Amino acid sequence: MALWKESAKTPTTETPEATDLARPDIQPPGPKVEVPVQPAFRPTPTPAKPKAESLIAPDITIEGKIEGEGHVRIAGNFKGDVNVRGDLTIEPGAKVTGGVRAEKVTIAGELIGNIESAVHVELQQSGALTGDLKAGSLSVAAGSRMRGQAEFGWDDAGDSHGTHQASGRDRMTS
């Protein structure tokens, strides 16, 4: 008495159907099975990372150069140029001596130097600027001080609307 069942032996020569089953372009007979097609891989855009803010504390004095991406807040004293792709904030009581290039510049302390190609400059009530500025727009609070030239509201290619007739330079002194 056998405890197992012998399987029927298949001939060593393969039938054409058996060899065709290995080929993906030929479907076996019987019901057709749909294989879901996955869409092509498309990376999802990562949300823009918020820019980090660096702080120079009130009791700190630094001499050098600041460059990079991100926001900078100066509450102490800094001597040197600031070139950032972000915002620069000069806190009340802070003093910066040097050229500035930033997207938005907020002055509540003192800046001795020129501001070049900022999108917006805000001169707050306690702020003082000694130098020239060139910006897309300018906000000046009552009580603030400025000594220098201001050029704002102009693009480099000239006025595209044709509404401005002057050279764009206003002399502001105190």
- Strand and helix order: HEEEEEEEEEEEEEE
Helical stretch tally? 1
Major sheet, described briefly? Answer: 14 strands, mixed
Q: Count of DSSP E strands?
A: 14
Poorly predicted ranges (pLDDT <50, ≥5 residues)?
159-174
Radius of gyration: 35 Å
Beta percentage is 35-45%
Instruction: Note the gap between the termini.
Output: 117 Å
Mean pLDDT, to the nearest integer, reads 79
- Give the oligomeric state: single chain
Can you walk me through this structure?
With 174 residues, this protein is mainly beta. It has a domain at 53-156. It contains 1 helix and 14 strands. Strands 1, 2, 3, 4, 5, 6, 7, 8, 9, 10, 11, 12, 13 and 14 form a 14-stranded mixed β-sheet that branches. The longest helix has 6 residues, at 16-21.
